[in-house]
Automatic annotation (TrEMBL):
Lineage of origin: Bacteria, Bacillati, Actinomycetota, Actinomycetes, Streptosporangiales
Sequence intervals crossing the membrane: none
PANTHER family named among the record's database cross-references: CYTOPLASMIC PROTEIN (PTHR30411:SF1)
Pfam families per UniProt: tRNA_edit
CDD domains: PA2301
Protein name: Cys-tRNA(Pro) deacylase, prolyl-tRNA editing enzyme YbaK/EbsC
Record InterPro entries: YbaK/aa-tRNA-synt-asso_dom_sf, YbaK/aa-tRNA-synth-assoc-dom
Gene3D superfamilies associated with the record: YbaK/aminoacyl-tRNA synthetase-associated domain
Domain YbaK/aminoacyl-tRNA synthetase-associated: 36-158
Length: 173
């Protein structure tokens, strides 16, 4: 499969998934245990031989509009950056968008920092999936825990309810 990991069916290993992720698995999802100290993208990809171009990050943002704050998830390849202050802000119709504070993102998602994934997020949170993520046959994403990763088809992320596929990322220089 991808990288130097032992991928196994995710549904058969709920111990490697955060609670909210267990009930939101997509078909074909595979999971692999990793060293939690290597959960951050660059260290993970280097250690396990996973190309950055198939590793996708889930960034949680806080969108402010009309005195209200709403959360949203942005999925971009590790080779890209989410255009939070441009594309994401306009798409969400927000006055201001910023990265959600770690404590708030983990508390509200029920997932660990460094392992947040779009699977199992609160249903009222929009999930914005970059076109490049949706186009990948498979991407490596978080499992909700720092000690494992999921391998899922890009089209499965695009099909999540309430996912929207948009051009939200730009390549890292």
């Amino acid at each position: 499969m991808i990288g130097d990991l032992d991928w196994v069916p995710a549904a058969d290993h709920p111990d490697l998934l955060a609670e909210p992720v267990r009930t939101a698995l997509v078909p074909q999802a595979q999971v692999a245990g990793i060293d939690p100290e290597l959960a951050d993208t660059a260290a993970f990809c280097e250690r396990y031989g996973v190309p950055l171009g198939v590793s996708a990050n889930c960034v949680i943002v806080a969108a402010k509009r009309g005195g209200e704050i709403g959360m949203a998830a942005c999925m971009v390849l590790a080779t890209h950056r989410a255009d939070v202050n441009g594309v994401v802000r306009r798409h969400l119709g927000a006055r201001k968008v910023s990265f959600a504070p770690m404590e708030e993102a983990t508390r509200l998602s029920g997932m660990e920092y460094g392992g947040i994934t779009p699977l199992g997020l609160p249903p009222e949170w929009p999930v914005l999936v970059d076109e490049a993520v949706a186009a990948e046959p498979y991407v490596v994403i978080g499992s909700g825990l720092r000690r494992s990763k999921l391998l899922v088809p890009g089209k499965a992320l695009a099909a999540l309810d309430p996912a929207e596929v948009i051009a939200l990322g730009r390549p890292v220089a």
